[in-house]
Structure prediction request, 341 residues.
Amino acid sequence: MIIRSKAPLRLGLAGGGTDVSPYSDLYGGAILNATISMYAYATIEPRTDGKIVFNSIDRKETIEYPSKEFLEIDGNLDLLKGIYNRVVKDFTKKPLSFTLSTYVDAPPGSGLGSSSTLVVSVIGAFTEWLKLPLGEYDIAHLAYEIERKDLGMAGGKQDQYAATFGGFNFMEFYDNDKVIVNPLRIKPEIINELQFNILLYYTGTSRLSSKIIEAQVQNVNKKKEKSIEAMHKLKEQAILMKEAVLKGELNKIGEILDYGWKYKKQMAEGITNPVIDEIYETAKKAGATGGKISGAGGGGFMMFYCPENTRYKVIEALQKFGGEFRRFQFTKNGLETWSIK
Prediction:
């Protein structure tokens, strides 16, 4: 038997960072995001030889262990071990024997939620294999707990829910880990136009998002007014973006992105740097009306809104920076799992 799963990566369109505690606990957060046709894949092949094999294909890492109830967290494929430990602790109560192979379409630190999406995909594969009693909210919350609490990785909550639910979602975040996912019904012509006008650009550098997020958390804890006010503005941006997308007011998208980028840079040190600033200004001069860095910042993917065929001029203008452009489609489905006998 072979068990497979896939979960989509996401583009954060507005409100990014307001899903991170303690901001979301104190003030409530809001984010608009949409999943795209780049995925995290997981395959489980049950074994009978009492071994556990983790095979991260994109990272070119393979580790083998004797089957046991708890695998030491030691810096080697910890995400996979953290998921296994939690599955045994919460569900099977006994060791398992299997090969788990994973692949992600974007590198770690790309800003598209690749780590959290991988966790969702792997939980999905275990759920399919072991017939675990988990719904969408359960899977997303478990993925969040494994990353943020069990493994102590800094970050927010949006990625796990985006990967699980899929599509365009307006998400609300409150204290006590309460998350509400509001799926948006957007006309197909609006989605097609957004797809045509949004340019996804990989800067060629990944970054450790946890450092930027830790700085953001400290700024809230220290009651730094400038950072907190910036987060309030980003939450407001999410509401503006939701209205523009639902009403089809596409001419407003670029300026709403530009408004958000101005405030995102004020949330914490390291979100931008001179190269990112130069790329952004070059894109705007070539015809983009707004944009942002995807994820926490510091590198990874950037996105630009390029109306009226300006995408081609923007592509030409950004060639000198040596990054790469990625075609994508917006996707309707979130986590999908299946088995082959």
